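User: Could you go from structure to sequence for me? I need the amino acid at each position, not a summary. Structure tokens:
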């Protein structure tokens, strides 16, 4: 796990890239009735804007809030580091999913004005379970592994 601001930045860059790309693919697939090969390329069009927004939000706001909330509830010195990592991940997803669903509704879905709230709520409800499972079971372990490779090599 990150120990410095620079490491935190690198961790956020990697995590945001993974989460945003997969979630953009997922949401395009939902809106088109299923997954198809073209979705992986289509997601690259929406990726840059969503990636920048997610990275900035997580690094400057949501990550700090998540750490404060988790460290109020549990003492990181008394818990295994994986429990702390999972707790932080759950809080981050709990904040990021509604915010990113809202932003995606504005920039990507662009619903008719009187359908905005229901479009956002539907996007959020469908995205949350996927984002949480993706974070806990795939992105989190993969990014922690990649991060450990980067910073073990740098330490040597």
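Assistant: Here is the amino acid at each position, in order:
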């Amino acid at each position: 796990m990150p120990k410095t601001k620079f490491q935190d930045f690198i961790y956020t860059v990697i995590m945001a890239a993974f989460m945003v790309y997969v979630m953009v693919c997922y949401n395009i697939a939902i809106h088109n009735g299923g997954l198809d090969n073209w979705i992986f390329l289509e997601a690259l069009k929406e990726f840059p804007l969503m990636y920048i927004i997610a990275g900035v939000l997580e690094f400057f706001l949501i990550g700090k809030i998540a750490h404060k909330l988790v460290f109020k509830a549990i003492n990181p010195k008394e818990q295994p580091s994986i429990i702390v990592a999972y707790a932080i991940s759950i809080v981050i997803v709990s904040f990021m999913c509604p915010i990113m669903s809202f932003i995606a509704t504005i920039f990507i879905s662009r619903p008719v004005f009187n359908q905005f709230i229901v479009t956002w709520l539907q996007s959020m409800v469908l995205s949350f379970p996927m984002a949480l499972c993706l974070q806990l079971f795939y992105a989190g372990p993969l990014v922690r592994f990649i991060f450990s490779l980067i910073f073990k090599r740098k330490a040597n």
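One structural detail worth keeping in mind: The chain has four helices and no strands.
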